[in-house]
């Protein structure tokens, strides 16, 4: 039996099961937020619990009957499951309830498709969608599958499927090629930043924690920021200047989410590379969210997956305006290093404290002092000018040059070593790793 599948579903029924295995648990509230972000209109929320999913329908026979009745009662066009369904389960449920079914992965991919703005973002989303779709190709052609046969007896079902699969494979290959080109261009940009020793500060966090609002507040930008999941998809880079640490690049990246589909992590590896190669991560946390500890854990998991778990991190507890009687502040560790900043990105309260903390953490590896050079140190003076490290120059009564310099400590050490000048002649330089 075959039914027409509408182009888009608006009236939606949401389905969530509490499963015995906590590792598979999803948040029911998050499903509602995802559905609204995708533009769906949820009319009913069907919940239940099972020790483990049914292999055929995911839900049990009773829940399936309940779901069929709800679809008919509301005239729903879409049923969204808060779980990853196998292609077979998706197909079986559609066959039984005569309504389009979308699983959590498909829903997130749909939101990503709506949010992608740049050429690279659109390519990444399309790649993830095609790879997801390739496992579900048979679905729209179930009414033709029985016409398969041997040589000379192949029916249109198999022909269509094979043709679709071939087109999909060709398209996936083509997107991979184009993405490789974009990645090479990105790598060149990152290499030039590394050569000029410009630090990259990357905003990371659970989706909807307020990263884009904070980004706008710091950089006086107007990138899209909204109270919805995945408002920002494409990475945005802006140059900022810090008092001691000098120029830095601030990067706003895609928000993370529980069980972020692996296909998306793979497809967005180029975008997430801004995070994996950052000098410092600002982990933005919604301090008003009851599930913030779980969200922190999920972000840490994705950071580990993209190889960014060892990058220095500063926690930014945002949405302080929603907590009564709390003032912006910096929390420090036993050594006086900033570890946490409390602020409100919406009102801007505490953003100066954040910049102060970032400046402290980045300038820890920057040498910014005035050194005295004798006339015989002309070679060192020339090299410092070559590196753009001299901010100011004056002469004292003895004819010594007083140079105010700022550069990375490791670069200064290498320079002194190359010129056979003992580092301690000018300063005690320690490099922090």
From TrEMBL:
CDD domains (alphabetical): HflX (cd01878)
A single MF term (Gene Ontology): ribosome binding
Residues that hold Mg(2+) according to the record: 212, 232
Annotated residues for binding of GTP: 205-212, 230-234, 252-255, 318-321
Every Hflx-type G domain range: 199-366
Keyword Isomerase: no
InterPro entries: G_HFLX_dom (IPR030394), GTP-bd (IPR006073), GTP-bd_M (IPR032305), GTPase_HflX (IPR016496), GTPase_HflX_N (IPR025121), GTPase_HflX_N_sf (IPR042108), HflX_C (IPR045498), P-loop_NTPase (IPR027417)
Keyword hit for Cell cycle: no
Keywords: Cytoplasm, GTP-binding, Magnesium, Metal-binding, Nucleotide-binding
Function: GTPase that associates with the 50S ribosomal subunit and may have a role during protein synthesis or ribosome biogenesis.
Subunit structure: Monomer. Associates with the 50S ribosomal subunit.
NCBIfam families: GTP_HflX, PRK11058.1
This protein's name: GTPase HflX
Gene behind the chain: hflX
